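Q: Hi! First time doing this. I have a protein sequence and I read that you can turn it into a structure. Is that right? Here it is:
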Amino acid sequence: KRGLPHAHILAKLKHKMEVEDIDKNISARIPGLDQPELREKVLRHMVHGPCGKFRNAKSPCMDPEGQHCTKRFPKEANEKTHLDERGYPHYRRSALNCATLKKRGKSFDIDDRWVVAHNPDLIQKYDAHINVEYASTPKTVKYLFKYVLKGPDRARSALVENCQPVDEVAEYETQRVIGA
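A: Yes, that's right. Below is the predicted 3D structure, encoded as structure tokens:
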């Protein structure tokens, strides 16, 4: 319902993952220069923004006053991955692992704190934005269900005589659901 095809998938594992397993499967880091192809794909698909008071205060993720990102980027830097008291993961990120990102004709200096969590193998294979998160408690799964409960899809039909021309733009505008 956001205008682009996408999927939310929940995979249940047989055993609970340990922090070391999370680090093996999920990354929130910019790959090193020794992995140029993966690095280029992560920088193209998995960097949030640019947003922020001094980068782009009008970005869609910014709060109404344009003071901070509602997705909480940049994330905090962590020496190692850990789960907080709610079971939410805080991935290993470094403020020192930097890169320069070019978007819309501008250059931005970024670090791991701007990288969306992902699985490097999936990014390498599909060359697309694929956000992967670890959900350790039922509370962390609620995000998926908000999409199921957003309301029904809409369809429009009409009986016309003599093959009257159809205004496809008007039909698209009345059928499309646009989120916040």
